[in-house]
């Protein structure tokens, strides 16, 4: 059964200027329910993540300043919006949804989080609307609980996963792979184990060729027993921040290829949705929904 983490708090309204991107967190599950791809039984609502699991990944002082809200204004500006208790709770629940998703992935092969992909959060900083790094937290949870020994993180958001790279720079059991726009945020990029930097305007053919020539070799090299996939749809040509030229069908083919590789090798995968900033909300929702549709076809 396809299990998907979703909670209404995911769509918590942000300050003016940031609310539009949040609408997708309500619309993705609503569309999947409407079309019959999923039913309510596929959705689960995560609780708050325990502090001990957060501290597997994030610095104690940073976490306490985030939790108790005295995070300095300069650090809040780096995150991109003023903090509130509800926004911190939102981040904690997103991270718990990804951790819970790992257990569902072991059971069913794959699991999703409607939100997540908060890959700009480092061990002691938040950045780019990311405060806690959900997939890094979940990867460290698996390592600390002896549930995995070799993990591959596939980050195909248009923005480099700088926080994830920093968190695992000294961790040989986690291989970080980021394929992203070269001339895009973050402008200081932490080195992943493998970074593939893309020129502006790259389209379906070149994008998919590069992915298809890289990922199978990585899986063979790393021999992971768990995979995290960040499936951002800000690679779309319609995206106002992405600078790439991948079509919606090309994005869908990307997801199909990644998930076929996971399924074909029998490796459980947890999927977090990442970014998407097309001016037309329908483009964002449809591209994200395609990731769920592909998974449903391949696994169930």
TrEMBL record:
<dbReference type="InterPro" id="IPR023696">
    <property type="entry name" value="Ureohydrolase_dom_sf"/>
</dbReference>
<dbReference type="InterPro" id="IPR037138">
    <property type="entry name" value="His_deacetylse_dom_sf"/>
</dbReference>
<dbReference type="GO" id="GO:0004407">
    <property type="term" value="F:histone deacetylase activity"/>
</dbReference>
<feature type="domain" description="Histone deacetylase">
    <location>
        <begin position="22"/>
        <end position="290"/>
    </location>
</feature>
<dbReference type="InterPro" id="IPR044150">
    <property type="entry name" value="HDAC_classIV"/>
</dbReference>
<dbReference type="Pfam" id="PF00850">
    <property type="entry name" value="Hist_deacetyl"/>
</dbReference>
<dbReference type="GO" id="GO:0016787">
    <property type="term" value="F:hydrolase activity"/>
</dbReference>
<protein>
    <submittedName>
        <fullName>Histone deacetylase</fullName>
    </submittedName>
</protein>
<comment type="similarity">
    <text>Belongs to the histone deacetylase family.</text>
</comment>
<dbReference type="GO" id="GO:0040029">
    <property type="term" value="P:epigenetic regulation of gene expression"/>
</dbReference>
<dbReference type="InterPro" id="IPR023801">
    <property type="entry name" value="His_deacetylse_dom"/>
</dbReference>
<dbReference type="InterPro" id="IPR000286">
    <property type="entry name" value="HDACs"/>
</dbReference>
<keyword id="KW-0378">Hydrolase</keyword>
């Amino acid at each position: 059964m396809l299990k998907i983490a979703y909670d209404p708090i995911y769509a918590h309204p942000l300050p003016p200027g940031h609310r539009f991107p949040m609408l997708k967190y309500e619309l993705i599950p609503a569309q999947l329910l409407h079309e019959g791809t999923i039913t309510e039984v596929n959705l689960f609502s995560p609780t708050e993540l325990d502090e001990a699991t957060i501290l597997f990944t994030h610095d104690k002082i940073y976490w306490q300043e985030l939790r108790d809200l005295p995070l300095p204004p300069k650090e809040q500006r780096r995150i991109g919006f003023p903090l509130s208790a509800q926004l911190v709770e939102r981040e904690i629940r997103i991270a718990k949804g990804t951790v819970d998703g790992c257990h569902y992935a072991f059971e069913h092969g794959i699991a999703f989080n409607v939100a997540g992909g908060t890959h700009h959060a480092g061990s002691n900083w938040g950045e780019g609307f990311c405060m806690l790094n959900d997939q890094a937290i979940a990867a460290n949870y698996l390592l600390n609980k002896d549930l995995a020994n070799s993990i591959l993180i596939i980050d195909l958001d248009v923005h480099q996963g700088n926080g994830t790279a920093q968190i695992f720079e000294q961790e040989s059991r986690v291989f970080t792979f980021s394929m992203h726009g070269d001339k895009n945020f973050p402008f200081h990029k932490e080195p992943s184990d493998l970074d593939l930097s893309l020129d502006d305007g790259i389209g379906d053919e070149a994008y998919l060729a590069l992915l298809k020539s890289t990922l199978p070799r990585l899986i063979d090299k790393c021999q992971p027993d768990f995979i995290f996939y960040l499936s951002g749809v800000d690679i779309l040509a319609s995206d106002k921040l992405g600078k790439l030229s991948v079509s919606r069908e090309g994005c869908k083919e990307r997801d199909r290829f990644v998930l076929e590789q996971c399924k074909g090798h029998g490796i459980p995968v947890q999927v977090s949705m990442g970014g998407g900033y097309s001016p037309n909300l329908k483009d964002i929702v449809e591209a994200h929904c395609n990731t769920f549709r592909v998974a449903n076809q391949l696994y169930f």
